Amino acid sequence: MGLKGKVRVPGDKSMTHRAFLFGGIANGTTTISNALEGADCLASLKAVEALGAKIERSEKTIQITGTTALNEAKIDCGNSGTTIRLLSGILAGSEAAYELTGDDSLKKRPMDRVTIPLSQLGAKIEGNYAPLRIQGQPLVGTTYTLPVASAQVKSAVLLAGLFATGETTVIEPILSRDHTERMLPQFGVDVTIDDFEDGRHIRVEGPVQLTATTVDIPGDPSSAAFWWTAAAIGEDSVITTERVLMNPTRIGFLQVLRQMGASVKISNRQEVAGEEVADVTVESTTLQAMTIEGEQIPSLIDEIPLLALLATQAEGKTIIRDAAELRVKETDRIETVVASLRRLGASIEATADGMTIEGPTSLKGAAVDSAGDHRLAMMLTIAKTLNEEIQVNGNEVVEVSYPTFYDDLKKLQDNGNG
User: Fold this and answer.
1) Given 178, 302, 369, 373, which residue is catalytic?
2) Is residue 408 among the annotated active site residues?
3) Who's near 325: CB < 8 A, 6+ residues apart?
4) What is the rounded distance in angstroms from the CA atom of residue 111 to the CA atom of residue 109?
5) What confidence score (pLDDT) does residue 329 get?
6) Cβ neighbours for 58, distance < 8 A, ≥ 6 positions apart
7) What's the 3-state SS for 220-257?
8) Which pTM value belongs to this model?
9) What are the pLDDT digits (tens) for 276-325?
10) Spatial distance between the Cα atoms of 343 and 363, rounded to a whole number of angstroms
């Protein structure tokens, strides 16, 4: 039977990170509701606590009383690339020394993509990989053009700009996620955004002090995407994800679903914390293969494992290009996705910057491993809804981004069988 029902997915991961980090350095007490309390975001919360912020939790909210004098600290960022890269920007202009480290996976991820631009403002950071040693310095504003679309690099530079003297401008030739520049005004920061021929110019004037606020975090579209996929490829399935973030830089996957012929309905639109939210309903349909490349990629980079699964059930040859960044995620996501789906009988080949998939294919039962990657574990679990004989090992890693994933799956299965 199919999957049916409504799901409220956890709060958006990118927005939760920023709410925790900004609240931690803001003047006053910030109240955050529907935060994602997965391992990655909690790394950001623990980081600001180590720097001197006070945290109070209730059943529905997290309150952060920020600190303006950041303690010297050694901070463990766990598996969170967002935590270590954004913190690098925040701490570069402070008055103390810091060490930022993480787990074995994080220590393999390149950090020069943030340390090089931060050095343009005068930052003193040692290390191309974690642990990073940061000696806080007086910073001076600069203009930096992003060589690749990266919300983490853009955010690191803008956050360093808050502590720098003068104007800091980030020029973005290809748009990436814009949660930092949308949320900073909620914390009282003046952000100027203009579009020019060479890209989008985002400016902040420093030094500036953040002011505490209230943030209600919408549902994470990267988490909702698992249910959209399950509904689209399932038999007789209808799933509504409620109150999901509809930021244009984050719903590339939804647009591709529509282009592939999926039935997608959007309702109940409203605005929350400078962002649009809505309910999204997806029903089972026949899907058509397509080519996904270029400017589409940054807005769906985290959903490419799901696109690969969708493509195994679509009519024709799907080509995914320009996604080389996947090779430096929690795992080499191109290799792990291709190897896993091939084990399940998919006709899929890896390329240098993506993959090609022929469909439709009936997936066969086999044991597959998450490789310690939360998105891979969830994608393979959605594949299992097509064939119960698929066995997913290492699925506890879903705690990183979606602690209630298996509870929600059971509810949708029960509704489908009811």
Assistant:
1) 302
2) no
3) 148, 150, 301
4) 6
5) 66
6) none
7) CHHHHHHHHHHHHHCCCCEEEEEEEECCCCCCHHHHHH
8) 0.81
9) 999 999 999 999 999 999 888 887 888 999 999 999 999 999 999 998 87
10) 9
d(CA 414, CA 156): 44
Those residues with Cβ within 8 angstroms of residue 242's Cβ, 6 or more apart along the chain or in another chain? 6, 7, 8, 219, 268, 279
Once rounded to an integer, what is the mean pLDDT over residues 45-71? 95
Count of C-beta atoms within a 10 Å radius of residue 393: 12
pLDDT at residue number 273: 75
Write out pLDDT tens, residues 123-149.
999 999 999 999 999 999 999 999 988
Mean pLDDT of the chain: 94
Q: Describe the crossing of helices 221-233 and 304-312 by its angle, rounded to 10 degrees.
A: 0
Q: What is the pLDDT at residue 390?
A: 97
Long-range Cβ contact pairs of 52-57 (< 8 A, separation 24 or more):
53/23, 53/24, 53/25
What CA–CA distances, in Å, run from 329 to 80, 109, 144, 289, 325?
10, 7, 24, 25, 7
Please choose, from the candidates 18, 16, 25, 12, the residue with its C-alpha nearest in 3D space to the C-alpha of residue 54: 25
Instruction: Write down the pLDDT at residue 271.
Output: 87
134 contact partners, CB below 8 Å, separation of at least 6: 88, 91, 92, 97, 98, 99, 100, 123, 124, 125, 126
Helix ranges (H only) for 34-193 are: 39-50, 81-92, 112-120, 151-163, 179-183
Smallest Cα–Cα separation from 62: which of 91, 39, 92, 29? 29
Question: Cα(181)–Cα(203) distance, rounded to whole angstroms?
Answer: 9
